[in-house]
Design a protein that fits this description.
By secondary structure, the chain is α/β, with parallel strands linked by helices. It contains ten helices and eleven strands. It folds into two domains: about 30-115, Leucine Dehydrogenase, chain A, domain 1 (Rossmann fold, 3-Layer(aba) Sandwich), CATH 3.40.50.10860; about 140-270, 3-Layer(aba) Sandwich (Rossmann fold). Bound molecules: guanine (GUN). Guanine binds near residues 96, 98, 141, 142 and 170. Guanine (GUN) binds next to strand 4 and helix 6.
Length: about 290
């Protein structure tokens, strides 16, 4: 029997933990309410949905937000100016620039311009480097969401073999670092596979835990996994008016021991982790 890991339920639990800390450490002490900045460029439909969901989360929990929505043809210079304004604005505790960006904008420059103390996405090299060195830092929200769901369901990852499919800077790369770090939760043996890995099945069949973040609906099939493995599906793919994960749910269901559903798995966990990082940024600031 496969047990579904309920991201919606867990996100509700974490929201109430955040609310409790917000009340105890900020509201009761008459401190300023945390404030998240969001910079969105262009008209990418998925990005607009993600940002709207992030805003909903802020409203729901009582965290302030400011959205700067720039048109599709915004020059890189203008975007960098908006980032610098967020860096300098003392009322913004943390902010994000929603990815992907338009092709004419250099993503590296954007990330390097964000003040690391306000980088609640954890993408700046200072945070990314600290993460790789087992130091305290902002960790990317999706990776934190994955670690948290595994931890809360008491799934042991220490000593287990984790195979990650996809090496993106947003998910694959950071989760490979966090799963293998010398800390709890961590200590997993990690294999990071990607588009140039021949015969991915060879690796996935040996895995105790598989984390799939490739953006291809139904990529991981039941025949590619071993009986009893734990499957984390990070995919959110719009397919024929439905939202599908990167896992072929029907063939994996029944063979895996645990599986995150899409929707309702890693998505809600990612959103609450951004709020958690924003609260931490605010507490660091006060
Ligand atoms: N695009 C897809 N996921 C993310 C994320 O976690 N942060 C940002 N900034 N952009 C994204």
């Amino acid at each position: 029997m496969t047990k579904l890991l309920d991201g919606n339920m867990l996100a509700t639990e974490i929201r109430s933990e955040i609310s409790h800390t917000l009340e105890k450490e900020i509201l009761n002490k008459n401190k300023r309410i945390p404030h998240l900045g969001i910079i969105l460029t262009g008209n990418n439909r998925s990005s607009i949905t993600y940002v709207n969901n992030k805003i909903k989360e802020c409203k729901n929990i009582g965290i302030k937000y400011s959205l700067i929505h720039l048109p599709v043809n915004t020059l890189e210079k203008k975007l960098l100016e908006e980032i610098k304004k967020m860096n300098q604005n003392p009322y913004i505790d943390g902010f994000i620039v929603q990815f992907p960006l338009e092709k004419h904008i250099n993503q590296d420059k954007v990330i390097l311009t964000i003040n690391p103390t306000k980088d609640v996405d954890g993408f700046h090299p200072e945070n990314f480097g600290k993460m790789a060195l087992d130091m305290k830092a902002f960790f990317p929200a999706t990776a934190l969401g994955i670690l948290t769901i595994l931890d809360k369901y008491k799934i042991k990852i220490s000593g287990k073999h984790t195979v990650i499919i996809g090496r993106s800077k947003i998910v694959g790369r950071p989760i490979s670092i966090l799963m293998s770090r010398r800390n709890h939760p961590g200590n997993s043996t990690v294999t990071l596979t990607h588009s140039k890995t021949p015969n991915i099945e060879y690796y996935t069949k040996q895995a105790d835990i598989i984390i799939v973040a490739v953006g291809k609906p139904g990529f991981l099939k039941g025949k590619m996994i071993k009986e009893g493995s734990i499957i984390i599906d990070v995919g959110i793919n719009n397919y024929e008016k439905k939202i599908l994960g990167d896992v072929d749910f029907d063939s994996v269901n029944g063979k895996a021991s645990y599986l995150t559903p899409v929707p309702g798995g890693i998505g809600p966990m990612t959103r609450v982790m951004l709020l958690k990082n924003t609260l931490i940024a605010a507490l660091n600031n006060r």
